[in-house]
Amino acid sequence: MGEGEGIDYPPKNVSSSDAAPALDIPAKKLARQLNFTGSGGAVLLPEQEKSQPQQLLLQVDMAQSQLSLQSRPPQPQTLAQSVISSLPLQQLPLQAPHPSLRVGKSESPKARSRPNFESKDGTPKKQKQCNCKHSKCLKLYCECFASGVYCDGCNCVNCYNNVENEAARREAVEATLERNPNAFRPKIGSSPHGACDRREEVGEVLILGKHNKGCHCKKSGCLKKYCECFQANILCSENCKCMDCKNFEGSEERQALFHGDQNNNMVYIQQAANAAITGAVGSSGFSSPPISKKRKGQELYFGATTKDSSVGRLGQQANHVRSPAPSLSLSPIPCAHVGPSTVGPSKVMYRSLLADIIQPQHLKELCLVLVLVSGQAAKTLTDQKNLMDKHTEDRRATSHVFSTQEQLPSQKESDDCSKANQTDKISPDNSSSDGADAPKGRSMSPGTLALMCDEQDTMFMTTASSIGSIAHACNTSSQLPYRQGMTDAYAEQERIVLTKFRDFLNRVITIGEINETKCSSLARSELHSPKDPIINGTGNARAETTQQQGAASNGVAKAHVPPMATSMSTISTSLVANNVPENGEIKLKVEKDI
DNA sequence: GAGTTTGAAACT
DNA sequence: CAGTTTCAAACTC
């Protein structure tokens, strides 16, 4: 890259033509050359135009080392990251913010006295000002340099991070990139695990993200701004090699920080909401807390020793607590799932009341049920129509003529369509001759079809395809009466499907409420003194979880908690039992899965 | 504001 | 790659 020769670092061979007149003379602070704009692009200020050729040359070099950035998939980003990532690639060296700035760095009281990089609403304002003394602002120690911006109004000494020293700066950039091609890239990125990963807070909105390299904190517990993760308002991740980390989801210390501040309460609430979302489906409400290097490899996240995914999630400290017993710390405590393996009762974890309750299979079953219900609705509707229209059947048969070109290759389906034209219904004999064909009623509504899109069962995929073909064939017939019939069928099917789905959700809500009530009452009665002011009402998930955890320690909680998995099965079963016609195989399949 | 602590970056 | 040094921000008083 660059000149191709070895680069002295720090640069001593600064081109005389470009270097500052004297190294020891504090460089004159120049106006900032690049401004971040809300639109995500850097703008060249008038005074920087003179240096453009140099910058462009450098930008080419930089682009070479950062090409991969273009191919990276979209990632959750902070505002600053979004701004950076949306910038033209070749401009990155001057724009990628400093690690701290890249992650929405907040500032200490002292720092707040200086211009902020971002305004309160996230609108980029003025950059922080460094105080470098020995780095010439040409190393990543310097926030400005690391941010890819010239120093401007900083308190630095012997600054070379300015236009006058562009050559030196450029070499420094090259040297930095040589050491670390990612040096100017955002440090916070999304994880390959997607939703299971860390959340990054931007203002009060949490998004996912984690530190690409991870922190290496030893003494700060990752709860001070020394920690890059904490500074970025993200949780530590498996990338971190920190010790005694307290910056993990559910950390009491971390939450204590949040609770001390009204604004941060919103963060906590939002986190809880996120946790509820992620925890409601699947076995873990929260992602696992980070494991320090020293513990990594010792702990089994999903080890065979895990007797129950819902057990052993208490006392989430993992690496953070030198607990003698390996805490299987997969996720925070599920309120409704407690076990005897409580470790670290002081740890407070929020977990969805529905965590471990709704499993992916339940959703699949729900979809199946809805499909079946839809099919039944279609059948019922067509039966009714059949009765009503029976006396006009002959007339319709003669008045509605299909063009043969519009017939589908599948003769059976074409026949069905033609028959539908005649009778506005599906012949029950045809459609249900095979149980697997039950939902194949051609009157499947768009909503039902949508539900089926995610169904991996080829049986249903085939069905959907057939239905689509039929619908297409029939639509092209321009037979309004039939269309009307289809519309009616769709409407009816959607009504039923939505009703069932609503019922399902209501029951899920009920389960959650039951859990909540039980957790709350359990906590009140068995753990804390009645006068504990925190434990009022049923909405304090944190308090309840704490109680629950304590109750779990007493080994009594389990007896008070209904078997939620059973409840979910009951939901699906009841849906099947109440609404699914006698379509042997499918029904059996659903029930078997349950 | 000076001094201390901390951890990333730089260096060996 | 691990250990050490340098550095500047964060923090404390």
From TrEMBL:
Positions of the CRC domain: 126-250
Region Disordered, residue ranges: 1-20, 97-129, 388-448
GO terms (BP aspect): regulation of DNA-templated transcription
Family annotation (InterPro entries): CRC (IPR005172), Lin-54_fam (IPR028307), Tesmin/TSO1-like_CXC (IPR033467)
Location relative to the cell: Nucleus
Any single GO CC term annotated in Swiss-Prot or TrEMBL for this entry: nucleus
Family: Belongs to the lin-54 family.
Protein name: CRC domain-containing protein
